[in-house]
Write a structure and sequence with these properties.
Layout (H helix, E strand, L loop, with lengths): L2 E7 L3 H11 L5 E8 L6 H10 L4 E5 L6 H16 L4 E4 L2
Parallel strand pairs: 1-2, 1-4, 2-3
Helix pairs in contact: 1-2
Length: about 90
């Protein structure tokens, strides 16, 4: 069984990009959702370009920065609804 991953990003697209790029190469990883927690910098546009390069990656954006739990819950909801995830790893780069 594969593990899906939720990566929370807020104004740190460099670290998030490095982590996602590393994880995408592992066979044990199923799908990776990157949750941009309403960043105030150019994170969303940078991460959007990254996600276009690999179909294992999805980027979603929250309408507000509701904090760590809020952002992770949005990512988990996405994975459960769209990928029927059995296991989810939460990463906070």
């Amino acid at each position: 069984m594969k593990v899906d991953v939720c990566i929370l990003n807020y104004n740190d697209c460099d670290t998030t990009s490095k982590l996602a790029s590393e994880l995408v190469g592992y066979d044990a990883i199923g799908h990776i959702v990157i949750v941009d927690n309403n960043s105030t910098d150019d994170s969303y546009s940078v991460l959007e370009k990254l996600c276009l390069r690999d179909n294992k990656l999805t980027l979603i954006r929250t309408p507000r920065n509701g904090g760590y739990g809020y952002g992770n819950n949005r990512g988990i909801e996405y994975l459960l609804k769209n990928h029927k995830s059995g296991y989810i790893m939460i990463c906070n780069p």
